[in-house]
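Minutes, project huddle
Topic: does the predicted pose make sense with TXE bound?
PN asked that the exact inputs be recorded in the minutes so nobody has to dig through chat later. Recorded below.
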Amino acid sequence: MKSVQPKGSHFIDGAYVDDTAGREISCVYAATGETVATLHAATPAIVEAAIASAERAQKEWAALAPVARGRVLRRVADLLVERNAELSELESIDTGKPIQETLVADATSGAEALEYYAGLAATLTGETVPLGGDFVYTIREPLGVCLGIGAWNYPTQIAAWKAAPALACGNAMVFKPSEVTPLCALKLAELFIEAGAPAGLFNVVNGYGDAAASMVTDPRIAKVSLTGSVPTGQKVYAAAAEGLRHVTMELGGKSPLIIFEDADLENAISAAINANFYSTGQICSNGTRVFVHENIVEDFIERLVERSRTAILGDPLDPDTQIGPMITDAQRKKVLDYIRIGQEEGAELILGGHAPEGPGFFIEPTIFRNVTDEMTIAREEIFGPVLSILTFKDEDEVVARANDTQFGLAAGLFTKDFTRAHRVVAQLQAGTCWINEYNLTPVEAPFGGVKMSGVGRENSKAAIEHYSQVKSVYVAMGDVEAAF
Ligand code: TXE
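Predicted holo structure (tokens), as shared on screen:
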């Protein structure tokens, strides 16, 4: 494996920096278990430098004409597209995701976010409110320095999805990647400088949860946007509340995918595969509870298993590989535990379920049938390649069961009956729904959760509301009346 050791553990004020007093962070290639880079977690001095430089850069950035800010974001988008091959390889090494996925889903998705918000930057204006003589105008202002905290499944995409709207609104960002995938955001930070952004506008601070926690409560941080698990979300939300900071929380899910009797079966199976095995199942919006109408379940299972058997597991850097390893050995153990619990609770394992021999943190694509609503594998987020099939008889029943979860990130359904599709979607408790598709998240559409899956929305114009605030200015055109 070629060296992917960065020139420093953090990227602050336009340059790589390090402080070897920080606790070690080992970057492990999940396909072999070999260490490919070693970094040091941020010390208080690193955190201080990052926030201070972001605070300086934010003032300079916010003073630019919005179109000039957009131009910088656009250049970053172009650089991401130009360097896609190199960045995708790094993403595959950082996460273990197959190169055939990373080439189309990571730097490219980040580029789309930057391109979208580059265009939007110059359109962000206030409004004039006539009052019959007097009037009010509003100014859309940045919040200041925003803190982004990332998960390990999409390190480039998460950093770009957070930075693009934040920066378009005139904020600066300090980004803390997951300690498991610290490499990709550093590259994004380099590209911001290459594109002409002021030093400090997008700083990357690597470290564990405590480094992020110390920034959440820093008085100079105006907003916190986290992608991660529900327990971390609860902690970060509570800590941010102390200073009444703005928050966006993109958390976990246990989303339903409902296959009605009249569905196009092959399309529904393709969606179930994408909704469970893409990125080795490590996607928050995955449709892991697959509800199939009882009249078609046997045909559905036969074809699903037949197709899933052909999945090619292997080296993520091999273009033929379709399924990579789990992110870490700990995550693999956690998923294998869920597979064991599923069997113990009476679900029928019909495909996979094992960790193949050899190096790396692989798990076979796994399918359970005869899963019931109260089973652990139907209630908890597994975050691995484990698909559960549940059956249903009628629409009202499946809607109630689909909603019977603490989560509400996403939901999907397959039917040819469009009246039913819209009727069901209207009742589903989920932030994002798909009709006859699954897991497509274009930047043009809002993305986020309801219930325990989150607060706020990423992407689209909706994210602007979460990275800016409105000042209302009353203008009097006449004399001031007073009682005495
Ligand atoms: O997430 P964490 P982890 C789920 C998935 C997985 C589990 C754990 O089920 O098995 O979460 O993954 C930082 N204050 N998801 O450990 O712990 C942490 O350093 C501030 C779902 O990666 O939530 C990391 O950068 N920050 C998810 C980030 O929070 C803290 C995607 C997320 O860490 C902190 C990934 C604290 N007190 C995992 N503690 C999804 N749904 O998208 C930790 N962090």
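Observations noted during the meeting:
- The radius of gyration is 24 Å.
- The chain has a mean pLDDT of 98.
No decisions taken; revisit at the next huddle.
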